[in-house]
Amino acid sequence: MAKKPASLFVCQNCQAQYPKWTGRCEQCGEWNSLEEETRTATPSKAVSGRKGAGLKTTRLDGRATPPARLDTNMAELNRVLGSGLVPGSVVLVGGDPGIGKSTLMLQMTCALARAGHNVLYVSGEEAIDQIRLRAQRLELDRDPKALDQLELAASINVNDITTTLEERRTLQVVVIDSIQTMWLEGVASAPGSVSQVRSCAFELIRLAKTLGFVLILIGHVTKEGALAGPRVLEHMVDAVLYFEGDRGHQFRILRAAKNRFGATDEIGVFAMTDTGLREVPNPSALFLAERHGNIAGSAVFAGLEGTRPILLEVQVLLSAKSGDGAARRAVLGWDSSRLSMVLAVLEARCGLKLGSMDVHLNVTGGLKVTEPAADLAVAAALISAATGQPTAPDEAYFGEIGLSGEIRQVSQTGIRLKEIAKLGFRQAVIPRHVGTANARPKAPQSLTVAETGHLSDLVR
Ligand code: TYD
Ligand code: MG
Protein backbone atom coordinates (compact mmCIF):
# COMPACT_ATOMS: atom_id res chain seq x y z
CA MET A 1 0.00 0.00 0.00
CA ALA A 2 1.36 3.43 -0.94
CA LYS A 3 2.19 5.54 2.04
CA LYS A 4 -0.02 8.59 2.45
CA PRO A 5 1.99 11.82 2.18
CA ALA A 6 2.62 13.21 5.65
CA SER A 7 0.37 16.09 6.53
CA LEU A 8 1.81 18.91 8.55
CA PHE A 9 0.49 22.10 10.10
CA VAL A 10 2.79 25.06 9.67
CA CYS A 11 2.42 28.40 11.43
CA GLN A 12 2.34 31.05 8.70
CA ASN A 13 3.82 33.54 11.08
CA CYS A 14 6.88 31.82 12.57
CA GLN A 15 6.92 28.59 10.56
CA ALA A 16 6.76 26.35 13.59
CA GLN A 17 5.49 22.88 12.62
CA TYR A 18 2.83 20.81 14.35
CA PRO A 19 1.48 17.33 13.62
CA LYS A 20 -2.04 18.49 14.59
CA TRP A 21 -4.03 21.65 14.11
CA THR A 22 -4.33 23.95 17.10
CA GLY A 23 -5.98 27.34 17.33
CA ARG A 24 -2.91 29.11 18.59
CA CYS A 25 0.76 28.74 17.73
CA GLU A 26 2.62 27.84 20.91
CA GLN A 27 5.82 29.35 19.66
CA CYS A 28 4.81 32.85 18.59
CA GLY A 29 1.39 33.08 20.23
CA GLU A 30 -0.38 34.00 16.96
CA TRP A 31 -4.03 32.90 16.69
CA ASN A 32 -5.38 31.00 13.69
CA SER A 33 -2.07 31.03 11.88
CA LEU A 34 -1.73 27.28 11.28
CA GLU A 35 -2.24 25.92 7.78
CA GLU A 36 -2.14 22.39 6.54
CA GLU A 37 0.68 21.53 4.18
CA THR A 38 1.43 18.19 2.59
CA ARG A 39 4.95 16.97 2.38
CA THR A 40 5.94 14.22 -0.02
CA ALA A 41 8.74 12.41 1.69
CA THR A 42 11.97 12.56 -0.33
CA PRO A 43 14.53 9.91 0.49
CA SER A 44 17.67 11.47 1.88
CA LYS A 45 20.74 11.08 -0.34
CA ALA A 46 22.92 10.42 2.66
CA VAL A 47 20.65 7.57 3.64
CA SER A 48 20.27 6.21 0.08
CA GLY A 49 23.95 5.30 0.11
CA ARG A 50 24.92 7.02 -3.18
CA LYS A 51 28.51 8.19 -3.10
CA GLY A 52 28.89 11.91 -3.99
CA ALA A 53 31.28 13.14 -6.68
CA GLY A 54 34.47 14.91 -5.57
CA LEU A 55 34.42 18.72 -5.73
CA LYS A 56 36.73 20.57 -8.10
CA THR A 57 38.39 23.21 -5.94
CA THR A 58 40.27 26.26 -7.13
CA ARG A 59 42.77 28.88 -5.97
CA LEU A 60 41.90 32.32 -4.67
CA ASP A 61 44.17 34.28 -7.02
CA GLY A 62 42.44 33.55 -10.36
CA ARG A 63 40.96 36.16 -12.65
CA ALA A 64 37.64 37.60 -11.52
CA THR A 65 35.44 39.50 -13.94
CA PRO A 66 32.93 41.88 -12.43
CA PRO A 67 29.37 40.96 -13.41
CA ALA A 68 27.97 42.63 -16.52
CA ARG A 69 24.97 44.79 -15.71
CA LEU A 70 21.76 45.77 -17.43
CA ASP A 71 21.30 49.50 -17.10
CA THR A 72 17.75 50.24 -15.94
CA ASN A 73 18.01 53.81 -17.23
CA MET A 74 16.60 55.00 -13.91
CA ALA A 75 19.39 56.59 -11.89
CA GLU A 76 17.65 56.18 -8.52
CA LEU A 77 17.01 52.49 -9.17
CA ASN A 78 20.56 51.91 -10.42
CA ARG A 79 21.93 53.52 -7.29
CA VAL A 80 20.05 51.11 -5.04
CA LEU A 81 20.81 48.06 -7.18
CA GLY A 82 24.51 48.95 -7.42
CA SER A 83 24.59 50.34 -11.00
CA GLY A 84 22.15 47.99 -12.67
CA LEU A 85 20.72 44.49 -12.80
CA VAL A 86 23.07 41.50 -12.85
CA PRO A 87 22.06 38.75 -15.33
CA GLY A 88 21.01 35.57 -13.55
CA SER A 89 20.36 37.42 -10.30
CA VAL A 90 17.12 37.44 -8.36
CA VAL A 91 15.71 40.61 -6.85
CA LEU A 92 12.84 40.75 -4.39
CA VAL A 93 10.87 43.99 -4.30
CA GLY A 94 8.75 44.18 -1.15
CA GLY A 95 6.38 46.76 0.25
CA ASP A 96 2.90 47.48 1.54
CA PRO A 97 0.00 46.87 -0.83
CA GLY A 98 -0.74 50.03 -2.80
CA ILE A 99 2.62 51.65 -2.16
CA GLY A 100 3.53 51.60 -5.87
CA LYS A 101 5.52 48.42 -6.52
CA SER A 102 3.69 47.48 -9.71
CA THR A 103 3.99 51.03 -11.01
CA LEU A 104 7.72 51.16 -10.32
CA MET A 105 8.34 47.80 -11.95
CA LEU A 106 6.21 48.62 -15.01
CA GLN A 107 8.16 51.84 -15.46
CA MET A 108 11.42 49.95 -15.07
CA THR A 109 10.46 47.22 -17.55
CA CYS A 110 9.49 49.89 -20.09
CA ALA A 111 12.81 51.66 -19.59
CA LEU A 112 14.65 48.35 -20.06
CA ALA A 113 12.60 47.54 -23.16
CA ARG A 114 13.35 50.97 -24.56
CA ALA A 115 17.05 50.18 -24.18
CA GLY A 116 16.52 47.08 -26.33
CA HIS A 117 16.26 44.36 -23.68
CA ASN A 118 13.70 41.58 -23.94
CA VAL A 119 11.36 41.82 -20.98
CA LEU A 120 8.40 39.78 -19.77
CA TYR A 121 5.98 41.10 -17.14
CA VAL A 122 3.79 38.39 -15.62
CA SER A 123 0.92 39.61 -13.49
CA GLY A 124 -1.08 37.38 -11.24
CA GLU A 125 -2.97 40.31 -9.76
CA GLU A 126 -4.20 42.28 -12.72
CA ALA A 127 -5.71 41.40 -16.08
CA ILE A 128 -3.90 42.46 -19.24
CA ASP A 129 -6.40 45.27 -19.81
CA GLN A 130 -5.69 46.70 -16.38
CA ILE A 131 -1.96 46.72 -17.06
CA ARG A 132 -2.62 48.40 -20.42
CA LEU A 133 -4.75 51.06 -18.76
CA ARG A 134 -2.03 51.67 -16.21
CA ALA A 135 0.58 51.97 -18.96
CA GLN A 136 -1.67 54.45 -20.77
CA ARG A 137 -2.05 56.50 -17.64
CA LEU A 138 1.71 56.50 -17.17
CA GLU A 139 2.11 57.42 -20.85
CA LEU A 140 4.32 54.40 -21.34
CA ASP A 141 2.42 53.22 -24.41
CA ARG A 142 3.73 56.01 -26.62
CA ASP A 143 7.12 54.48 -27.28
CA PRO A 144 7.11 52.02 -30.21
CA LYS A 145 10.50 50.65 -29.18
CA ALA A 146 9.26 49.81 -25.68
CA LEU A 147 6.16 48.20 -27.14
CA ASP A 148 8.25 45.91 -29.34
CA GLN A 149 10.42 44.53 -26.56
CA LEU A 150 8.00 44.33 -23.65
CA GLU A 151 5.62 41.43 -23.37
CA LEU A 152 2.80 40.94 -20.91
CA ALA A 153 1.14 37.85 -19.54
CA ALA A 154 -1.52 37.27 -16.91
CA SER A 155 -1.06 34.00 -15.06
CA ILE A 156 -0.73 32.56 -11.61
CA ASN A 157 0.39 29.13 -12.72
CA VAL A 158 4.13 28.66 -12.17
CA ASN A 159 4.17 25.44 -14.24
CA ASP A 160 2.89 27.42 -17.25
CA ILE A 161 5.32 30.24 -16.57
CA THR A 162 8.38 27.99 -16.33
CA THR A 163 7.42 26.17 -19.54
CA THR A 164 7.13 29.52 -21.30
CA LEU A 165 10.48 30.66 -19.97
CA GLU A 166 12.19 27.45 -21.07
CA GLU A 167 10.84 27.92 -24.59
CA ARG A 168 11.77 31.60 -24.75
CA ARG A 169 15.48 31.69 -24.15
CA THR A 170 15.92 35.28 -25.40
CA LEU A 171 14.21 36.84 -22.40
CA GLN A 172 16.57 38.94 -20.29
CA VAL A 173 14.32 40.24 -17.53
CA VAL A 174 11.24 38.60 -16.05
CA VAL A 175 8.99 40.32 -13.49
CA ILE A 176 6.56 38.28 -11.38
CA ASP A 177 3.80 40.40 -9.81
CA SER A 178 3.34 39.14 -7.14
CA ILE A 179 4.91 35.98 -5.72
CA GLN A 180 2.00 35.68 -3.27
CA THR A 181 -0.48 35.07 -6.10
CA MET A 182 1.60 32.31 -7.69
CA TRP A 183 0.60 28.69 -7.54
CA LEU A 184 2.57 25.52 -8.22
CA GLU A 185 0.79 22.27 -9.01
CA GLY A 186 1.64 19.55 -6.54
CA VAL A 187 1.98 21.79 -3.53
CA ALA A 188 -1.17 21.23 -1.56
CA SER A 189 -1.79 24.62 -0.05
CA ALA A 190 -3.28 27.91 -1.15
CA PRO A 191 -1.37 30.67 -2.98
CA GLY A 192 0.27 32.98 -0.46
CA SER A 193 1.01 30.29 2.10
CA VAL A 194 4.58 29.78 3.19
CA SER A 195 5.05 26.54 1.29
CA GLN A 196 3.50 27.85 -1.95
CA VAL A 197 5.51 31.07 -1.84
CA ARG A 198 8.68 29.17 -1.14
CA SER A 199 8.14 26.43 -3.72
CA CYS A 200 7.09 28.86 -6.47
CA ALA A 201 10.07 31.09 -5.77
CA PHE A 202 12.40 28.10 -5.73
CA GLU A 203 11.21 26.90 -9.16
CA LEU A 204 11.54 30.36 -10.70
CA ILE A 205 14.92 31.06 -9.09
CA ARG A 206 16.31 27.72 -10.28
CA LEU A 207 15.33 28.63 -13.83
CA ALA A 208 16.76 32.15 -13.59
CA LYS A 209 20.09 30.73 -12.48
CA THR A 210 20.23 28.12 -15.27
CA LEU A 211 18.92 30.31 -18.10
CA GLY A 212 20.60 33.52 -16.92
CA PHE A 213 17.70 35.97 -16.96
CA VAL A 214 17.13 38.56 -14.26
CA LEU A 215 14.19 37.53 -12.08
CA ILE A 216 12.28 40.18 -10.19
CA LEU A 217 9.79 38.99 -7.61
CA ILE A 218 7.28 41.44 -6.20
CA GLY A 219 6.04 40.62 -2.71
CA HIS A 220 3.53 42.28 -0.40
CA VAL A 221 4.54 42.91 3.16
CA THR A 222 1.60 42.45 5.47
CA LYS A 223 0.79 44.49 8.55
CA GLU A 224 2.86 42.30 10.82
CA GLY A 225 5.65 42.27 8.28
CA ALA A 226 6.29 38.57 8.51
CA LEU A 227 3.26 36.65 7.33
CA ALA A 228 4.15 34.38 4.41
CA GLY A 229 5.62 37.42 2.81
CA PRO A 230 8.93 38.47 1.41
CA ARG A 231 10.64 37.61 4.69
CA VAL A 232 10.56 33.87 3.97
CA LEU A 233 12.31 34.58 0.66
CA GLU A 234 15.01 36.93 1.84
CA HIS A 235 17.67 34.25 2.12
CA MET A 236 16.84 32.73 -1.28
CA VAL A 237 17.39 35.86 -3.37
CA ASP A 238 20.41 38.02 -4.24
CA ALA A 239 18.92 41.38 -3.41
CA VAL A 240 15.99 42.57 -1.31
CA LEU A 241 14.61 46.03 -1.99
CA TYR A 242 11.89 47.53 0.14
CA PHE A 243 9.67 50.23 -1.29
CA GLU A 244 8.38 52.35 1.54
CA GLY A 245 6.76 55.64 2.29
CA ASP A 246 3.83 57.17 4.00
CA ARG A 247 0.51 56.83 2.16
CA GLY A 248 -0.26 60.47 2.88
CA HIS A 249 3.03 61.65 1.41
CA GLN A 250 4.11 61.84 -2.17
CA PHE A 251 7.62 60.55 -1.44
CA ARG A 252 8.58 56.93 -1.90
CA ILE A 253 11.89 55.49 -0.75
CA LEU A 254 13.48 52.40 -2.27
CA ARG A 255 15.87 50.86 0.21
CA ALA A 256 18.17 47.85 -0.20
CA ALA A 257 17.90 45.51 2.80
CA LYS A 258 20.25 43.00 1.21
CA ASN A 259 22.39 43.18 -1.90
CA ARG A 260 24.96 40.64 -3.03
CA PHE A 261 26.04 42.95 -5.86
CA GLY A 262 26.07 46.35 -4.19
CA ALA A 263 25.90 48.36 -0.97
CA THR A 264 22.90 47.93 1.31
CA ASP A 265 22.61 51.39 2.78
CA GLU A 266 21.75 53.24 -0.42
CA ILE A 267 18.31 54.67 -0.98
CA GLY A 268 16.48 55.83 -4.08
CA VAL A 269 13.95 58.63 -3.75
CA PHE A 270 10.86 58.93 -5.92
CA ALA A 271 7.90 61.26 -5.98
CA MET A 272 4.45 59.95 -6.82
CA THR A 273 2.60 61.87 -9.51
CA ASP A 274 -0.47 61.36 -11.70
CA THR A 275 1.81 60.12 -14.43
CA GLY A 276 3.76 57.69 -12.28
CA LEU A 277 6.90 57.79 -10.21
CA ARG A 278 9.32 60.59 -10.87
CA GLU A 279 12.93 60.27 -9.77
CA VAL A 280 14.17 62.80 -7.24
CA PRO A 281 17.88 63.39 -7.76
CA ASN A 282 18.08 66.08 -5.09
CA PRO A 283 15.83 65.05 -2.19
CA SER A 284 17.07 67.71 0.25
CA ALA A 285 15.52 70.55 -1.72
CA LEU A 286 12.21 68.70 -1.86
CA PHE A 287 12.20 67.72 1.82
CA LEU A 288 12.84 71.31 2.86
CA ALA A 289 10.52 72.91 0.30
CA GLU A 290 7.63 73.36 2.70
CA ARG A 291 9.70 74.59 5.59
CA HIS A 292 8.69 77.82 7.32
CA GLY A 293 11.61 79.46 9.06
CA ASN A 294 10.96 81.43 12.24
CA ILE A 295 8.78 78.85 13.96
CA ALA A 296 9.95 77.53 17.31
CA GLY A 297 10.46 73.78 17.49
CA SER A 298 12.04 73.17 14.11
CA ALA A 299 15.65 72.34 13.20
CA VAL A 300 17.34 71.15 10.02
CA PHE A 301 19.31 67.91 10.21
CA ALA A 302 22.08 67.05 7.77
CA GLY A 303 21.74 63.29 7.51
CA LEU A 304 23.35 60.62 5.40
CA GLU A 305 21.64 57.77 3.56
CA GLY A 306 24.25 55.46 2.09
CA THR A 307 26.68 57.71 0.28
CA ARG A 308 24.16 60.49 -0.19
CA PRO A 309 23.66 63.43 2.17
CA ILE A 310 20.04 64.42 2.77
CA LEU A 311 18.77 67.47 4.64
CA LEU A 312 15.58 67.03 6.62
CA GLU A 313 13.49 69.09 8.97
CA VAL A 314 12.90 67.85 12.53
CA GLN A 315 9.76 69.31 14.09
CA VAL A 316 8.83 69.23 17.76
CA LEU A 317 5.63 70.29 19.42
CA LEU A 318 5.37 70.52 23.20
CA SER A 319 2.08 70.72 25.04
CA ALA A 320 1.11 70.50 28.70
CA LYS A 321 0.51 66.88 29.74
CA SER A 322 -3.12 65.88 29.69
CA GLY A 323 -4.35 63.70 32.59
CA ASP A 324 -2.42 62.01 35.40
CA GLY A 325 -0.59 59.29 33.48
CA ALA A 326 2.84 59.39 31.90
CA ALA A 327 3.49 62.14 29.38
CA ARG A 328 2.93 61.24 25.74
CA ARG A 329 5.87 60.70 23.40
CA ALA A 330 4.59 60.56 19.84
CA VAL A 331 7.38 60.01 17.33
CA LEU A 332 7.15 59.85 13.53
CA GLY A 333 10.25 59.04 11.49
CA TRP A 334 12.66 58.57 14.38
CA ASP A 335 13.41 56.16 17.21
CA SER A 336 11.34 56.87 20.32
CA SER A 337 13.90 55.41 22.73
CA ARG A 338 16.47 57.76 21.24
CA LEU A 339 14.07 60.66 21.94
CA SER A 340 13.71 59.54 25.57
CA MET A 341 17.49 59.54 25.88
CA VAL A 342 17.87 63.05 24.49
CA LEU A 343 15.10 64.26 26.84
CA ALA A 344 16.81 62.62 29.82
CA VAL A 345 20.17 64.16 28.93
CA LEU A 346 18.59 67.61 28.49
CA GLU A 347 17.03 67.29 31.93
CA ALA A 348 19.98 65.80 33.82
CA ARG A 349 22.85 67.73 32.21
CA CYS A 350 21.28 70.98 31.10
CA GLY A 351 18.43 71.44 33.59
CA LEU A 352 15.79 71.59 30.88
CA LYS A 353 12.76 69.86 32.40
CA LEU A 354 10.27 68.51 29.89
CA GLY A 355 8.93 65.60 31.97
CA SER A 356 5.53 67.22 32.39
CA MET A 357 5.12 67.96 28.71
CA ASP A 358 3.69 65.84 25.92
CA VAL A 359 6.24 65.65 23.12
CA HIS A 360 5.33 65.21 19.46
CA LEU A 361 8.26 64.72 17.13
CA ASN A 362 8.05 64.51 13.37
CA VAL A 363 10.63 64.13 10.62
CA THR A 364 9.10 65.78 7.57
CA GLY A 365 8.90 64.05 4.21
CA GLY A 366 8.02 60.62 5.59
CA LEU A 367 11.62 59.42 5.77
CA LYS A 368 12.62 57.21 8.68
CA VAL A 369 15.91 58.36 10.18
CA THR A 370 18.03 55.74 11.92
CA GLU A 371 21.25 57.68 12.44
CA PRO A 372 22.29 58.77 15.96
CA ALA A 373 23.71 61.83 14.17
CA ALA A 374 20.19 63.26 14.30
CA ASP A 375 20.44 63.65 18.10
CA LEU A 376 21.75 67.20 17.92
CA ALA A 377 19.03 68.41 15.55
CA VAL A 378 16.39 66.81 17.76
CA ALA A 379 17.90 68.48 20.85
CA ALA A 380 17.97 71.83 19.01
CA ALA A 381 14.30 71.45 18.03
CA LEU A 382 13.41 70.52 21.64
CA ILE A 383 15.32 73.47 23.10
CA SER A 384 13.78 75.78 20.53
CA ALA A 385 10.27 74.53 21.35
CA ALA A 386 10.87 74.82 25.11
CA THR A 387 12.26 78.35 24.94
CA GLY A 388 9.95 79.58 22.18
CA GLN A 389 12.97 80.80 20.22
CA PRO A 390 13.20 79.65 16.61
CA THR A 391 16.53 78.25 15.40
CA ALA A 392 18.18 80.47 12.78
CA PRO A 393 16.53 79.76 9.40
CA ASP A 394 19.90 79.34 7.71
CA GLU A 395 21.33 76.92 10.28
CA ALA A 396 21.72 73.12 10.08
CA TYR A 397 22.75 70.53 12.67
CA PHE A 398 24.33 67.12 13.02
CA GLY A 399 26.04 65.25 15.86
CA GLU A 400 25.50 62.38 18.26
CA ILE A 401 24.76 63.06 21.93
CA GLY A 402 26.36 60.98 24.69
CA LEU A 403 24.84 60.30 28.10
CA SER A 404 26.95 62.92 29.85
CA GLY A 405 25.74 65.54 27.39
CA GLU A 406 28.88 65.54 25.28
CA ILE A 407 28.44 65.93 21.53
CA ARG A 408 30.20 63.19 19.63
CA GLN A 409 31.63 63.13 16.16
CA VAL A 410 29.83 61.32 13.36
CA SER A 411 31.02 60.01 10.01
CA GLN A 412 31.29 61.96 6.74
CA THR A 413 31.49 65.48 8.15
CA GLY A 414 32.82 66.82 4.84
CA ILE A 415 29.97 65.50 2.71
CA ARG A 416 27.37 66.81 5.16
CA LEU A 417 28.94 70.28 5.27
CA LYS A 418 29.01 70.44 1.47
CA GLU A 419 25.32 69.58 1.23
CA ILE A 420 24.45 72.18 3.87
CA ALA A 421 26.28 74.85 1.90
CA LYS A 422 24.83 73.66 -1.40
CA LEU A 423 21.30 74.29 -0.17
CA GLY A 424 22.12 77.86 0.77
CA PHE A 425 22.51 77.43 4.53
CA ARG A 426 25.13 79.71 6.08
CA GLN A 427 25.68 78.14 9.51
CA ALA A 428 26.33 74.62 10.73
CA VAL A 429 26.37 73.42 14.33
CA ILE A 430 28.49 70.28 14.52
CA PRO A 431 30.52 68.25 17.06
CA ARG A 432 33.90 69.50 18.22
CA HIS A 433 36.83 67.87 16.47
CA VAL A 434 39.60 67.04 18.90
CA GLY A 435 43.09 65.76 18.22
CA THR A 436 45.09 65.99 15.03
CA ALA A 437 44.14 62.54 13.78
CA ASN A 438 40.60 63.62 13.02
CA ALA A 439 40.98 67.22 11.99
CA ARG A 440 37.78 68.68 10.61
CA PRO A 441 37.48 68.58 6.82
CA LYS A 442 37.55 72.02 5.23
CA ALA A 443 34.13 73.62 5.14
CA PRO A 444 32.83 75.43 2.05
CA GLN A 445 33.58 79.16 2.15
CA SER A 446 30.01 80.36 2.50
CA LEU A 447 29.53 78.35 5.69
CA THR A 448 30.23 79.39 9.28
CA VAL A 449 30.86 76.30 11.37
CA ALA A 450 30.23 76.28 15.12
CA GLU A 451 31.92 73.33 16.79
CA THR A 452 30.10 72.45 19.99
CA GLY A 453 31.49 70.17 22.68
CA HIS A 454 28.61 69.93 25.12
CA LEU A 455 24.84 70.15 24.93
CA SER A 456 24.74 72.86 27.61
CA ASP A 457 26.58 75.17 25.15
CA LEU A 458 23.65 74.74 22.81
CA VAL A 459 21.13 75.54 25.55
CA ARG A 460 23.00 78.74 26.34
P1 TYD B 1 0.47 50.15 -7.34
O1 TYD B 1 1.69 50.31 -8.18
O2 TYD B 1 -0.63 49.33 -7.90
O3 TYD B 1 0.86 49.59 -5.89
P2 TYD B 1 1.28 48.11 -5.45
O4 TYD B 1 1.66 47.34 -6.66
O5 TYD B 1 2.44 48.31 -4.51
O6 TYD B 1 0.13 47.51 -4.73
O7 TYD B 1 -0.04 51.62 -6.99
C1 TYD B 1 -1.18 51.84 -6.18
C2 TYD B 1 -2.05 52.93 -6.74
O8 TYD B 1 -1.43 54.19 -6.71
C3 TYD B 1 -2.46 52.69 -8.16
O9 TYD B 1 -3.86 52.90 -8.25
C4 TYD B 1 -1.74 53.72 -8.95
C5 TYD B 1 -1.49 54.81 -7.97
N1 TYD B 1 -0.22 55.52 -8.25
C6 TYD B 1 -0.20 56.75 -8.90
O10 TYD B 1 -1.24 57.29 -9.25
N2 TYD B 1 0.99 57.39 -9.13
C7 TYD B 1 2.18 56.83 -8.77
O11 TYD B 1 3.27 57.45 -8.97
C8 TYD B 1 2.15 55.55 -8.08
C9 TYD B 1 3.42 54.89 -7.63
C10 TYD B 1 0.94 54.94 -7.86
MG1 MG C 1 0.68 45.65 -7.45
From TrEMBL:
RecA family profile domain location, by residue? 66-221
State the Pfam families in the record. Answer: AAA_25, ChlI, Zn_ribbon_LapB
Q: Where is this region: Lon-protease-like?
A: 358-460
Q: Which PROSITE patterns match?
A: RECA_2
Identify the residue span(s) of motif RadA KNRFG motif. Answer: 258-262
Residue ranges, annotated region (Disordered): 37-65
The alphabetized UniProt keywords are:
ATP-binding, DNA damage, DNA repair, DNA-binding, Hydrolase, Metal-binding, Nucleotide-binding, Stress response, Zinc, Zinc-finger
Keyword DNA damage on this protein? yes
Give residues annotated as binding ATP.
G95, D96, P97, G98, I99, G100, K101, S102
Q: Which family does it belong to?
A: Belongs to the RecA family. RadA subfamily.
Role: DNA-dependent ATPase involved in processing of recombination intermediates, plays a role in repairing DNA breaks. Stimulates the branch migration of RecA-mediated strand transfer reactions, allowing the 3' invading strand to extend heteroduplex DNA faster. Binds ssDNA in the presence of ADP but not other nucleotides, has ATPase activity that is stimulated by ssDNA and various branched DNA structures, but inhibited by SSB. Does not have RecA's homology-searching function. Plays a role in repairing double-strand DNA breaks, probably involving stabilizing or processing branched DNA or blocked replication forks.
The free-text domain remark for this protein reads: The middle region has homology to RecA with ATPase motifs including the RadA KNRFG motif, while the C-terminus is homologous to Lon protease.
Q: Which HAMAP family match?
A: RadA_bact
Q: What is this protein called?
A: DNA repair protein RadA
Record the organism. Bombella mellum
Q: Which gene encodes it?
A: radA
